[in-house]
């Protein structure tokens, strides 16, 4: 375990807390996150040379798997990041690096990709699994196999950090490893279908139609034929105006491929099938002191109605609302990655040295 006083950084400022009464008239502590990133930057002592995450390939259950990681020689804890769909690890480069910095290099941080066929840019036209489509259940089983293979022999505490559908996967992994997982954090969690979201209705129809999903995958693949400089320009001037270089590169090198987008749509279809039911609140109640969620103000994947349901039914889960405007795609910007990394590390430090 990592004693709090070993961190070279100043303590992260507390979050503003307010009490809300649930149906049993019990006072519940709900953390509403205020701006802390600027204060943290001023208070902590940064290393002169920033650590950089690196990509590594490994074989898990016969599937070629890409990792984005920063390793500590003698880690006191391990943080495993499980991204959301499309599951390209490169999207989380700044996030992983920011967490590693804030943890003082005392933790190994690994970002696992969800799309098993996603590749680094140097392999951008490869198709490792030869067109196979992977479901949400396949992804859950794959993460379990990864932990058994890569982390099975270590007694270092494991912290799961899931984003979007990665939050759901993290909870399922937690269910399989109740003793090994020290804490599970869900960021902008996608835990159940939002039937009031018109965007989800449209995405569900696209993902559920093989013809439409194939056609859109083909269109994006045609854009991938363009020179990489042209692809970057298109992304920068359209969806990625405020994005980090890593996020733009992730789109250009991974998502503009037919087989990757087919997997994105197929996984989305199976997500909508599996998440048609309500989340397993009973499991959350049994582990509520080891679970935390961060919700956004206007996020149809993790709506505030889900926040309120968890607050009502699972009183001791740590719940926070992000009000800085980083939203669901926080990992696409450096500011969002830095802020959310600070929030995650504050949760981890509270578990390491509870007040």
TrEMBL record:
* Any one Gene Ontology cellular component term annotated for this protein: lipid droplet
Single GO molecular function:
lipase activity
Q: What is its main location?
A: other
Superkingdom of origin = Eukaryota
Q: Which GO terms describe its biological process?
A: lipid storage
Protein's UniProt keywords contain Hydrolase: yes
Q: Does the keyword Glycoprotein apply?
A: no
Q: Which Pfam family is one of those matched by this entry?
A: LIDHydrolase
The record, for Gene3D superfamilies, names:
alpha/beta hydrolase
Places the protein is found = Lipid droplet
InterPro entries recorded: AB_hydrolase_fold, LDAH
**Assigned keywords, A-Z:** Hydrolase, Lipid droplet
As for family, the record states: Belongs to the AB hydrolase superfamily. LDAH family.
This chain belongs to which protein, by name? Lipid droplet-associated hydrolase
Organism name: Stephania japonica
